[in-house]
Amino acid sequence: MTTIRQLIQTSPTKANELFAALADTSNNAVKTRERLLGDLKDELELLAKLEEEHLFPVLRKHKETKDLVTPALNDNKQTRKLLAELEETPKGSEEFGPKVVELRKVFQQSVRDERKDLLPAVLKALSDEEAQAIVEKIEEGKAEVEEARRAEAEQRRAEQRQEREQAEKLLAEQREAADRERESREAVRRTAEQVARTAEAAAESTRKVTQSAAETAQRVATAPLSTGSLFFDAMFGLWGVPSGRSLARSGSASASRTQVSSQEEEVIPLAEETLIVGKRTETSGTTTVRRYVVEVPAEQQVTLYDEKVVVERRRPVTDQATGETLTELTVEMVETSEVPLVAKGVRVREEVVVRRERTKRVETVRDTIRRDEVEISNAGRRSGNKRAALADSRK
């Protein structure tokens, strides 16, 4: 169990460590000085606050120790003043180091005065129960502050972890978007290659059709021409045409690409065009989200306490003289007033998530294509009917 002696002797340990670390920094270590100075301010303010709230009110109740309260309060006041001046000093200036040394001297002198004057008086004037009650209250106050600091540190770590997760998520979304963009470009490239191959195939098919048509026309031109009737063959002078000679029909046959084949089988290809639809990605708009800082008024109520000195006269409990009497005596009692100390913390109020959502739509692409059709007409049947009609007329 911690005693009042151990409490007073060990309380400034952490502050001394922070003073030593702050004194070892250079003018270039601005961020380190700001961090160490913030920790030192919290520690000094905690020590002074716990003394003023739990120790000094008890010391004022005892005649042996009440005179020690005023010098201790003055030391705390001087420490706060030098600490405020140090906060206003630029952390990278040459004046910062000497002011740290001055504040350290004042604090260490205050610690020596407490150990030399205050501690013996406290041990002599206070009972064990009073001393232990003070120790417990101060320890509870330190525990509450430490718990608050741990909670704040945990909140900061959670915020930092959340920021890292958001950054990683954003990076993953950017990578995914880049992958989709790369896949889209690759699909466009494959589509373009497919279109090029299809065009080459179509050109090759057209060339083959043209070549087949030319070969068919050549066969028709070299085949013996016959109507299938001896009478009409004789009339048109086709009977004596030697085999192997080619007769070409002029006029409408050439214009309509009419081909007469003597082969047993002819293959007429019927081709058609096909639609090949590709895709490309175009920028349709840009959404910009900019975070900026604004200042808004804020207020919060805080309960403050003032201690005023009240002087009153009353009838003595007994008329027997106690203590010193009939001598000059001056009693000073310090009046105190609490003033609000404003600090600022940062918490995440809300989050703005910027992401891209992919939606799917189906569009109908319309165009015209060309294709081959076939028309079949039987000229042989019409010739047979004509021959039948001529035979009937001769009868």
Task: Outline the structure in words.
This protein has 395 residues and is mainly α. Helix content is 56%, strand content 1%. It has a domain at 1-126. The chain has helices at 4-10, 13-23, 30-60, 69-88, 96-125, 128-222, 230-235, 252-255, 379-394, and strands at residues 306-307, 336-337. A two-stranded antiparallel ribbon has the order 1-2. α4 packs antiparallel against α5 (96-125).
Question: What's the short version?
Answer:
It is built from 9 helices and 2 strands. The chain is mainly α.
Label this structure with key terms.
two-stranded antiparallel sheet; 9 helices; rod-shaped; mainly alpha; 395 residues
Structure classification: mainly alpha
> Roughly what percent helix?
55-70%
* Portion in strands: under 5%
Mean model confidence by pLDDT: 79
Computed over alpha carbons, the radius of gyration is 54 Å
Report how far the terminal alpha carbons are from each other: 150 Å
Low-confidence stretches: 235-255, 386-391
Query: What is the strand tally?
Result: 2
- Helix/strand order: HHHHHHHHEEH
- Please tally the helical runs, counting DSSP H or I stretches of 4 or more residues: 9
Q: Major beta sheet, specifics? A: 2 strands, antiparallel
Q: Main sheet: which strands, in order across?
A: 1-2
Pfam families: DUF2382, Hemerythrin
Biased composition (Low complexity): 193-204
Domain DUF2382: 268-376
Organism: Methylobacterium durans
